Amino acid sequence: MLFQKAMGMLNTRLPKVISPGTHAIIDYAAAAAFFIAGARAWRQHKRAALAALFCGAMEASTAMLTDYPGGLVKAIDFDTHGKIDAGFAGLVATMPNFMGFASDPQAGFFRGQSLALGAATAMTDFRADVHAGRRERQLNRRVAA
User: Fold this and answer.
1) Is 66 helix (H, G, I), strand (E, B) or coil?
2) What does the domain layout of the chain look like in residue ranges?
3) Quick one: pLDDT band at residue 124, thresholds 50, 70, 90?
């Protein structure tokens, strides 16, 4: 509940300065960070490694399925992606508790990632026209031809 209140405050107070393309880059970078953390923790802390790999797979698959620059399948609209991201930030924060390593040092990575993902979500303009740049380039090509 505290996390939801904090996310609500972030969402209403932060400027919407992240474009769909930039958000895609952030999504893939976050997925990479989860995969790297999972690989690094594999030998010493299996639960943290599995949690990180799960989060990386979730982040990467959501990014690949979203209709924005960098999305591959375009099955999820960008506004819905924003709602998924908000829930995912909360899930990331609870993974150490769920997987039983909340008091271990590895939990800090998940809490930090959760805050970063929440801030990126709060600062993204999910109502932006994700195809505006593509349409402008197509129009410029037609005019030039």
Assistant:
1) strand
2) 10-144
3) very high
